[in-house]
């Protein structure tokens, strides 16, 4: 009987030790496993947005030592920006680098950042987005259940078309210009006499090539990356608006990141933001020279004063909106 008891006690001891040992093994295995997340955006990989997304993925992997990895899906592989926004809100998408237009359904005030001729330089725009105006918008975005990880830069936008150089607002009259689904852009081009058309970014090249639209407006870096210059004759440096891109995460995605790694993901986002902005600035400076010497497309500078005057009506109308006080603050700070 003593022998039986000893075997039973020993057996229980081994079982107890195993019970204590197994959670530790499972814990180590879980710590070593990788949380795999996906980031979607609508731009080519070679664009500043594409390069920023790639940098974010690299930084996340490096900082978390592989515990968190981010797969990047560029060029609308996972749908356009509106469907990406829906995916973030329903937690079927983890990260999205989205333009202003996609944010309007949840925070209409974001569109005011694209009001005509608000910022004259990239650096002025960045300071504003990192300051009180940008933080006011961040608070409203996060009230809608999303995690804001940084204001990226989509550049100061210029105009191309296949008909004529744009030197005055009258030159835009009756031209079919593709714009994003963004009310400030639509309204400013309408105010200048153009006929704005909304076409998905991934379809713009073919629309220009086939003549469905006469022109489009984008920062130089996007014009280069998407090769719009191949199917346009004129590039006019209208500098008509600044536009942000924002890096967002779903709350579910951030909850999947181990708690100890969440701050590292935020650090990666901040570094990727700075890298993306600098990439945009460098490309715009370089491309201004490159387009100027390129055969097949004529580049012209623009005196913006007549354009500013023609679009003041847009500011007037936006001050009447429910968030008119925010618009007034931006108008007072125009630079």
How much strand? 15-25%
Structurally, the number of domains stands at: 1
Number of strands: 9
Query: Which CATH C-level class is it?
Result: Alpha Beta
CATH superfamily heading: Bacterial extracellular solute-binding protein, family 7
Give the end-to-end Cα distance, rounded to a whole number of Å: 93 Å
Number of helices: 14
Mean pLDDT across all residues, rounded?
91
Per CATH, the architecture is: 3-Layer(aba) Sandwich
What's the main sheet like?
9 strands, mixed
**Helix content class:** 40-55%
Helix and strand content put the structural class at alpha/beta
Which fold name corresponds to the CATH topology?
D-Maltodextrin-Binding Protein, domain 2
Shape: globular
Indicate the radius of gyration in whole angstroms.
Answer: 25 Å
Query: In sequence order, what are the helices and strands, one letter per element?
Result: HEHEHEHHHEEHEHEHEHHEHHH
Low-confidence stretches: 3-31
Ordered list of secondary-structure elements with their pairings:
Layout: H1 2-32, E1 35-40, H2 48-63, E2 68-73, H3 81-89, E3 95-99, H4 100-103, H5 122-130, H6 132-143, E4 146-161, E5 176-179, H7 183-191, E6 195-198, H8 204-210, E7 215-218, H9 220-225, E8 234-250, H10 251-256, H11 259-292, E9 298-301, H12 305-310, H13 312-318, H14 324-332
Parallel strand pairs: 1-2, 1-3, 5-6, 5-7, 8-9
Antiparallel strand pairs: 3-8, 4-7, 4-8
Helix pairs in contact: 2-11
